[in-house]
Inverse folding.
């Protein structure tokens, strides 16, 4: 058995595929993981002995002029934005909040919609200016099928007011990969069940 250190942008599914195993097998090797969608950069994982190096970082798509906000999000993930434990707040996350009318001044307030708003606005497109994830269900136009970089809105819990929002990254069978903020308290690519999807949206 070997040890792998989680890096920015990693997902358990991507790590499992790299080492030639299923997500379930990787989870069995790592019983300390209670939530497969919440892994942190720097966290050690048990992996099979292998001559291979760590999986390569997720590629930044070359030239995506139709989804410039997605490239902004990829750049944020590359620099490794995450919450700071304790009373200190990450100023980058506070900056994300300023793109919404809530304008929260800490990194504990849920910030997935703030992150999406910030990325969209940095790309020169008007966002929702709302800190509510489900506000994106009325943004732009609905897509019948996802495309890389589109905004995906997911349900969270049984409360109709709660949700999660990020950018669609890829298909993973019965799950999708989402690039978003406040995923395990950081910007990363995480997997979510497809039955949680409420809608895919694209700028008009």
């Amino acid at each position: 058995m070997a040890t792998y250190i989680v890096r920015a942008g990693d997902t358990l599914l991507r790590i499992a595929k790299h080492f030639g195993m299923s997500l379930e097998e990787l989870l069995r090797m790592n019983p300390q993981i209670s939530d497969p969608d919440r892994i942190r950069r720097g966290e050690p994982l048990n992996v099979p002995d292998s001559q291979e190096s760590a999986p390569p970082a997720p590629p930044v798509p070359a030239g995506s002029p139709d989804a410039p906000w997605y490239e902004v999000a990829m750049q944020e993930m590359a620099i490794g934005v995450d919450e700071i434990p304790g009373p200190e707040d990450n100023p980058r996350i506070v900056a994300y909040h300023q793109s919404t009318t809530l304008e929260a001044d800490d990194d504990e307030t849920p910030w997935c919609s703030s992150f999406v708003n910030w990325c969209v606005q940095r790309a020169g497109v008007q966002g929702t200016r709302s800190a509510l994830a489900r506000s994106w269900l009325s943004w732009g136009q609905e897509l019948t099928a996802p495309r890389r970089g589109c905004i995906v809105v997911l349900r969270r819990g049984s409360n109709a007011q709660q949700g999660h929002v990020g950018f669609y990254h890829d298909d993973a069978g019965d799950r999708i990969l989402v690039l978003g903020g406040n995923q395990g308290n950081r910007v990363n690519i995480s997997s979510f069940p497809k039955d949680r999807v409420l809608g895919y949206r694209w700028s008009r």
Remarks:
- The first strand starts at residue 2 and ends at 5.
- The chain has two domains: 2-47, 68-202.
- The two ends are 50 Å apart (CA to CA).
